[in-house]
Amino acid sequence: MHIRVRGAGHDYEGLSYVSEVPFVIVDLINLRTINVDVNDKSAWVEAGSTIGELYYRIAEKSKTLGFPAGVCPTVGVGGHFSGGGYGVMLRKYGLAADNIVDARLIDANGRILDRASMGEDLFWAIRGGGGNTFGLVLAWKIKLVDVPEIVTVFTLDKTLEQNATKLVHKWQYVAPRFHEDLFIRILVSRLNSSNQGDGFPTDGPLDVLLSRVQFSTRYFKAKSDYVYQPIPEGGLEGIWRFFFEDEAQSSQVMILNPYGGRMDEISASAIPFPHRAGNLYKIQHLVYWDEEGEEVAERHISWIRRLYSYMAPFVSKLPRAAYINYRDLDIGVNNIKGYTSYVQAKVWGIKYFKNNFDRLVHVKTKVDPSNFFRNEQSIPSLLSGRTKVINEVHHSIKNNMMHAII
Ligand SMILES: Cc1cc2nc3c(=O)[nH]c(=O)nc-3n(C[C@H](O)[C@H](O)[C@H](O)COP(=O)(O)OP(=O)(O)OC[C@H]3O[C@@H](n4cnc5c(N)ncnc54)[C@H](O)[C@@H]3O)c2cc1C
Ligand SMILES: *[C@@H]1O[C@H](CO)[C@@H](O)[C@H](O)[C@H]1NC(C)=O
Ligand SMILES: *[C@@H]1O[C@H](CO)[C@@H](O)[C@H](O)[C@H]1NC(C)=O
């Protein structure tokens, strides 16, 4: 049986708890101890914790330390850190995975390793190379970052009539160049559609961060894109046209996240996450719906696929890059029932990891040759394929010989 490791279950394609083949879920929900060391400015976080629990435990001990991870508190550190993990501090401090300094991991042989015993190759791979691939992470050691006691947050709404197109157009030139203390992202959605933020109250007691239940749960499909050149106004107007279609009514949102700052300084090969200097911003495309049924789902999914095709000329090419934590099985999948070749995996792998893909394959082949940890988008082991091919050849030779003998 396959193993599916589940952190907080936020995988966009449900890979931590859905599979076509028989599988066992290893759910980490009980591994949630978080030890914050204010003097060392570090913390050990067990892999079943959510980022909300982590933020809460840090806030309990210090008002001037934080951690640069995601926005929604119910996201799990298990999957989130394994794929990079970003939030409003990424221009100042990079990704969550950029700030991991040690880890405890169970490898495919059942050994428990730390950074020293796993070695730098494997430690590199688990900081962004994707979950359920190199082993089961039990806990992360992270470096906390300095934050001011008071931050300013503001929201500005603009409609098309208020020249929103010009604003978005201009934003592309300035947002990636702002001082790293300033993070201004754009959420584009149809007027009065119901997708403001994550639904969590912004005032009141901090313990809302401890809730593992998402405020609202709806059906959705998402995709990601990276932008190197500002999109011209005409191109933006073409995007808005999709927003007026029926499928966008129940709600869609396009989130533009500025890069630059610290993201430009970290080398594209420092960790497996490769989207660094040159990226102006990342887009997340989302469409939501409430009604059950295949037909409704198909309609909304095909809407977002059409939008994605429309975007092609305006975004990164060769490869058309994507963010693994916005998991999208449309961009390519492994053969989950059998052997996945290097070439087959490279189709999606190069989009998530660019030139880091080969090093990830190398590490995987070394640490998990039999491909024990696997899913639809896990790095393949070259050896498991070779072994299988060799076995098949042996098998067919044996059969032919038996045939000849008979
Ligand atoms: C509402 C919502 C908001 C989000 N906001 C952000 C955001 O602000 N920034 C951002 O970067 N991303 C965001 N994401 C995406 C999020 O980072 C990914 O979905 C992430 O992988 C979720 O981690 P998880 O542990 O909750 O998910 P899971 O579904 O449990 O895990 C995801 C993958 O990692 C594997 N995995 C989990 N734990 C481990 C472990 N301990 N060891 C090995 N493999 C493991 C799983 O098998 C699966 O393949 C958001 C997602 C949602 C649903
Ligand atoms: C929109 O832009 C036009 C042309 O630049 C300008 O005349 C108009 O005042 C702007 N409208 C608003 C609401 O800012
Ligand atoms: C949006 O909602 C407001 C307040 O409910 C309403 O006055 C306005 O007409 C709505 N706009 C659209 C385009 O539906």
Automatic annotation (TrEMBL):
Signal peptide: none annotated. GO terms for molecular function: FAD binding; oxidoreductase activity. It comes from the Eukaryota. Residues 1-147 form the FAD-binding PCMH-type domain. Pathway: Alkaloid biosynthesis; nicotine biosynthesis. Keywords: Alkaloid metabolism, FAD, Flavoprotein, Glycoprotein, Signal. Its cofactor is FAD. Pfam families: BBE, FAD_binding_4. Coiled coil: none annotated. The keyword Signal applies. GO terms for biological process: alkaloid metabolic process; nicotine biosynthetic process. InterPro entries: BBE, FAD-bd_PCMH, FAD-bd_PCMH-like_sf, FAD-bd_PCMH_sub1, FAD-bd_PCMH_sub2, Oxid_FAD_bind_N. Belongs to the oxygen-dependent FAD-linked oxidoreductase family. Involved in the biosynthesis of pyridine alkaloid natural products, leading mainly to the production of anabasine, anatabine, nicotine and nornicotine, effective deterrents against herbivores with antiparasitic and pesticide properties (neurotoxins); nornicotine serves as the precursor in the synthesis of the carcinogen compound N'-nitrosonornicotine (NNN). Catalyzes a late oxidation step subsequent to the pyridine ring condensation reaction in the biosynthesis of alkaloids. This is Nectarin 5. It comes from Solanum tuberosum.
